[in-house]
Design brief:
Layout (H helix, E strand, L loop, with lengths): L1 H29 L4 H32 L1 H111 L2 H18 L1
Helix pairs in contact: 1-2, 2-3
Keywords: ATP synthesis, Cell membrane, CF(0), Coiled coil, Hydrogen ion transport, Ion transport, Membrane, Signal, Transmembrane, Transmembrane helix, Transport
Function: Component of the F(0) channel, it forms part of the peripheral stalk, linking F(1) to F(0). The b'-subunit is a diverged and duplicated form of b found in plants and photosynthetic bacteria.
Family: Belongs to the ATPase B chain family.
């Protein structure tokens, strides 16, 4: 490919040189006055054309050496690769985002389930505590009623004993008031004779 470009460039330079030579030859044929100068001009023009051809060849060679098309293609490939990597990174980021969103939703659901379980357990614990408190209250009430009944019976017994004691004391006082001194002596004598009789 480099040879083909070089040959094309060389052909163009030779063609330009040939056209210039034809132009000078025609000018020399038409105007004899300029004939002496035309050889020098022709020589000068030929060197300039050769210089120009060399410059063009060097420029073409430099461009080929620099491989502008290849570097542009490489640059384009690099940009395409970067774009593909960016698209892949974007897709990966979107995938990660979707994954984390799914995990977050799952975590929120688990938190809701845990919260509901804790609430239910709290309600059950509350009901259990209330039931135990009611049971304890019933037990305490029954104990209090039993203790009160005991106290009432004890108080009744004490009242009966006190009443009996008072009745005896009252009876004694009545008897003492109703029995005269002689009756007392008589009763004592009867008692002594009974004791003597028994022995």
């Amino acid at each position: 490919m480099h040879k083909k470009s070089f040959v094309t460039t060389l052909s163009v330079c030779v063609m330009i040189l040939g056209l210039a030579a034809l132009g000078f030859a025609q000018e020399a044929a038409e105007g004899g006055a300029h004939h002496a100068n035309s050889g020098a001009q022709m020589k000068d023009f030929m060197w300039r054309t050769i210089d120009f051809a060399i410059l063009v060849a060097i420029a073409v060679w430099a461009l080929k050496k620099a491989d502008v098309k290849g570097s542009l293609a490489a640059r384009r490939a690099g940009i395409e690769k970067t774009l593909q990597e960016a698209v892949a990174a974007k897709e990966a980021a979107e995938k990660k985002f979707a994954e984390y969103s799914q995990r977050l939703d799952q975590a929120n659901k688990e938190i809701e389930v845990i919260s509901a379980n804790m609430k239910r357990e709290g309600e059950l614990e509350k009901e259990r505590i209330i039931a135990e408190a009611k049971e304890a209250a019933t037990r305490i009430k029954a104990q209090a009623e039993a203790a009160a009944a005991q106290e009432v019976l004890k108080a009744k017994d004490e009242l009966r004993a006190e009443a009996a004691k008072l009745a005896v004391e009252l009876a004694e006082q009545k008897i003492k008031q109703n029995i005269a001194k002689g009756d007392q002596d008589k009763l004592v004598g009867e008692y002594i004779s009974k004791v003597v009789t028994l022995h």
